[in-house]
Amino acid sequence: MHAEVTHAKDKELEFRILDMDISVLYIIQHEIQKNNDVKFAGVILKHPLIREYMLKILTTKSDPQKSLLDSVDLAVQYTNDLSGMLKLTLGN
What we know:
Elements: E1 2-8, E2 12-18, H1 22-33, E3 38-47, E4 52-59, H2 64-90
Antiparallel strand pairs: 1-2, 2-4, 3-4
Helix pairs in contact: 1-2
């Protein structure tokens, strides 16, 4: 997995991400979009053969990097909660 910032301004952030499962990016995108200060958060598949994606965030007030990191933390928390629930349900 590799990520690099391709564009960054006060209220804009764009990443190029390689070799990652797109479903993880969709979960992060979903969490970012819950933030009222976020105007846009999108994931784009740039090339299907090399699994290259773009993640773009536009905010109105908040720092897009902080919005991204907060959303990643929420996605991890959600995944851990889901894992715990499934373990209880399955008896493991």
